[in-house]
Structure formats: C-alpha cells, structure tokens
Amino acid sequence: MKRSLDRKTRIALEPRKQPRQKRSSKVVDRILDAALILTREQGTKTPTTLAIAQRAGLSVGSVYQYFPNKEAILLELGRRWLSSFPEVIAKRIKVASPTNREEFRREVRKLFIDTSRIYLDNATLMPVIEAISGNADLRPIQDEYDKDIIALYAAWLQHVNPALEEKTAKRLGLVMMEVGHACRLVGLKRDRKTFDLIEDDVEAMWLALVTPYLNLD
C-alpha cells in the first residue's frame, strides 16, 4: 500500500508560505543557499535556524516566515537535490539514439559525470536523504521522485531500443537507480579515490546489466 505523509508531519515540515513574487523567491533561495553552505562547512552537525539566518543576512523572524523549523529547511534542500536527477537523465533521451555499444557506453559515461557531480557537490546532504528514506512518514517524498527517475531510465532504454518492453525497461530502471544510489552513498563515506573507483564499478555493472537488452552491435 502506498503511504502518504500524515497531516501532522506534512504541516510540521512544509514551508509556511510559497514565494509568489520574485523578491520572495530570492529570500527563500538565500535561506536555502545559506543552509547548504553551512551543511558543507559543518559536516554532520545540523546548522541551527539562527546560524542559517545569520549566514543569509536575515533575521530569524524572516526565516520563520517561510519555514517552521530547521528540519523543514533541510527537507526542502533534500527535495531540490532529488529533483535535480530527472533533468540530467532526460538529457540522454533528447540526443540521437546510440547505434552501437561504444556510443552507448559514452552516453552512460556522460550521465555518470553529471550525476556524480550532484552527489559530490551535495555530499553533506546525504544524512538528510538517508533520513527521508528511513522515516516511514517522510519516505513518500522520495518515492515520488524515485517513480519519475525509474520511468526516465526506462524511457532512455526504450529510446535506445524501441522494441524493449516497458515492464522490462522499468525493472532495469529500478535496478539502475537503486544500485547506483546505494553504491554512491558507500563511496561518499570513504574518500574521493574510493568514490571514483566505485563509480567505475557501478558503470561496469550497469553496462553488463542493460547492454544485452539494447540490441546494439
């Protein structure tokens, strides 16, 4: 059964108001940028609302106009992180379909470069993402993005091989997403060299998994 956020949790974590004017949007961006900078500087230590406000050059009251607490700020950062993946996957569907295995391998490499940058630039957000995944009340937030990402991976594979059945393409997309994410989390907890080696391993696993289904020479 698909679980949705309960009303109490949603109210507690949702932004208090959505920016409707350009000025308000800039204020929210300042808050989120400040929070992201602080998470990078402080590592596993969660920044306080006061620290976020000070870094953004705002009063605490101004921050509270948009977010009820620091958890809501971090959760919004998590949402933005999750929402960055569909765009980079969709880019692979917009280019000409590869006609052989080497061309497809190059397309996979381009995708890995783009997605790896998202992980590396937001490494300090991983505890937030893991908290979303491990919390039954918050998990629906990630589920929504996961569904879109799986569908895009499936569409990409069908772009390469239009004869590939949708059910098979989505199954492969699920494995691509789950394996890629889990392995990258492991890599981020080590050092950059280990992360890069794990990236190469995941790329090799992806190619071994999907290439037999793509009818490429």
From TrEMBL:
It comes from the Bacteria. This is TetR/AcrR family transcriptional regulator. Residues 1-17 have a biased composition (Basic and acidic residues). Residues 48-67 bind DNA. Residues 25-85 form the HTH tetR-type domain. Residues 1-25 are annotated as: Disordered. InterPro entries: Homeodomain-like_sf, HTH-type_TetR-like_transc_reg, HTH_TetR, TetR_C_15. SUPFAM superfamilies: Homeodomain-like (SSF46689). PANTHER family: HTH-TYPE TRANSCRIPTIONAL REGULATOR PKSA, HTH-TYPE TRANSCRIPTIONAL REGULATOR RUTR. Transmembrane segments: none annotated. Keywords: DNA-binding.
